[in-house]
Amino acid sequence: MSSVPLKKETLLAQVGNDRDEPNGAISTPIYLSAPYRHHEIGLLKGYDYIRTSNPTREVLENAIAKLEKGDRGFACSSGMSAVQLAFSLFKSGDHIVASRDLYGGSYRLFEWLSQQYQLEFSYWDPEENEVEGLIRKNTKGLFIETPTNPLMTETDLKLAAETAKKYGLLLIVDNTFYTPLLQRPIELGADVVIHSATKYLGGHNDLLAGLVVSANPEQSDRLFDFHNSCGAVLPPFDCWLLIRGMKTLALRMERHEKNAKEIYSFLSGHPLVDQVYYPRKGGMVSFEIAREAWVAPFLKALKLFTFAESLGGVESLITYPATQTHADVPEETRTSYGLSNRLLRVSVGIEHADDLIEDLAQAFNQLKEPAPGIKGQGGAEAEPVR
Ligand SMILES: *Cc1c(COP(=O)(O)O)cnc(C)c1O
């Protein structure tokens, strides 16, 4: 092998095919054994007990560490347990500044951590204020989700890393939406990267998983201790399923993005749509339908897009953040920053873009209101009313 570092696409396709495995398996073997034999006192082959380490999980953890250019990876039982693992680096009394437009489940966990464990949180909107204005004496961390969910605002990670360095803060980045293919936060100065691998990395809407990558060995040791102590580790079969999904990530991401761009153009020109949010990359598009009353009939009229809560899989999904992903964010809070009751979020799948656009078009067409007096005949152009 040459010493030129392999490209991300190659690393992904080859996950698990670089082990000195006695039988030469191409697909990573699934090791289900919980305990491992001790050959004599103090003599192990490297594995002891499944919570501590597992050969299948190790392949996955090494792969994500390499892809994110970090020191060490940790496979967790969910994206939320990945967030929790990262938060094991803080203690009661610490203050953390987090992106305001945040995954609803992370917001819910932070509320819990502040009520039960005396962690303090402030929420930051990069478009509205400077992060430095929120930093206090006890600020220890900066938690950033970029692009944000569901409003797709990008945060300048380089700038965030400079601020983190200046104030001695731990910079944690949720990289679920962009994946290491579109963004590598550690290269930009982040300390910890987390993923809900349930989304793009798994990619097939059939798995719950989380990943954490640590940038330096000291921090990796602390994370390992908590991971092993708490035990929210990813089971071997799920590790294998995630490895299998990751092999096609590069191809899937290309198609997600191509389709998302076409859908963005279609929605941007549609008379029944007000705002469209797309961060120039990736497969996620959010938009505001012109009237709140149209949300329910629109969702009902869709035939290809499934009204469901996740993202990043091969099948296109549509989400209503107000009652689904962001139901735990108080209405007043979310509407104050633009997450209205008219907002829909689309996870664009890998189907043919023409079929997806046709589905959206036919659903919009069913919203056209009948002209006054000719009830039930339809056909008249609706006036978008706010
Ligand atoms: C889904 C999601 C999570 C939580 O992950 P789970 O795998 O559902 O536990 C965290 N962050 C983001 C951005 C997500 O989309």
TrEMBL record:
Key words, A-Z: Aminotransferase, Pyridoxal phosphate, Transferase
Q: Which GO terms describe its biological process?
A: transsulfuration
N6-(pyridoxal phosphate)lysine: modified positions: K199
Q: Which PROSITE patterns match?
A: CYS_MET_METAB_PP
Pfam families membership: Cys_Met_Meta_PP (PF01053)
| Entry annotated with the keyword Transferase | yes
Stored CDD domains: CGS_like (cd00614)
Fetch the InterPro entries from UniProt. Answer: Cys/Met-Metab_PyrdxlP-dep_enz, Cys_met_metab_PP, PyrdxlP-dep_Trfase, PyrdxlP-dep_Trfase_major, PyrdxlP-dep_Trfase_small
Spell out the SUPFAM superfamilies in the cross-references. PLP-dependent transferases (SSF53383)
Reported cofactor(s): pyridoxal 5'-phosphate
Q: Name one GO molecular function term.
A: transaminase activity
> Is Ubl conjugation among the key words of this record?
no
Name a GO CC annotation attached to this entry: cytoplasm
Q: Which family does it belong to?
A: Belongs to the trans-sulfuration enzymes family.
How is this protein named in the record?
Answer: Aminotransferase class I/II-fold pyridoxal phosphate-dependent enzyme
UniProt organism field: Siminovitchia fortis
